[in-house]
Amino acid sequence: MTTVRLPLFPLNSVLFPGLVLPLNIFEERYRAMMRDLLKTPEDEPRRFAVVAIRDGHEVAASGPGMPDQTAVPDRGPAAGFGDNPFLAFHEVGCIADAATIRERADGSFEVLATGTTRVRLLSVEASGAFLTAELEELPEEPGEEAGALAEGVLRAFRQYQKRLAGARERSLSTGADLPDEPAVVSYLVAAAAMLDIPAKQKLLQASDTASRLREELKLLRAETAIIRNLPSLPASDLTRGPTSLN
């Protein structure tokens, strides 16, 4: 078993290998993480692990709030994640490689990272300025019939895009050619589909590419049928995902 210890960045979203992650860093614990990553030579990867939050808050409270207006805000690397932060996170996450870490004049950071490798969370350490975790790297196995499944998923995804664009009375940006490598297809579709965190997390931790593609095929067909039968959709931008405030 190959393990590695890396800084841990919890988010209210799921990061997939190959996907770009923009971050706006303003909390001190994550500023400390970025300052530490900047010590890594530029010709080496500046890696940290991203995990989706199961139970907790991405941004720690910075002032008194409900129900106790006099309560002192929680501080420290595990703020917002309870007494045992390990239990606050989903088991499988993704390593991110920070291609750009830019410090602003106010000490906050603008970061652009890319997901690389899936990892399983083994333990969480909160004794330093920021959370770190021991992680097991997870290989991406193709599974059976991944190629044929990828073709079916791409067809279903195109249909899903058309239905989604019609529901919003606008066109989705589809200028770039979609990939045909099964694992890449599986991650791209998982990231692009309008699914909640539990559904995306299930896709991230699929046992192999073929299993992920099978699940995506079911989800895309179900979502497309729902969109087709809805007269309208909520007034939220369905074509864009949020950028983390952290």
TrEMBL record:
InterPro entries named in the record: Lon_prtase_N (IPR003111), Lon_prtase_N_sf (IPR046336), PUA-like_sf (IPR015947)
UniProt-listed SUPFAM superfamilies: PUA domain-like
Signal peptide as annotated in the record: none
Superkingdom per UniProt: Bacteria
Domain Lon N-terminal: 6-224
Name of the protein: LON peptidase substrate-binding domain-containing protein
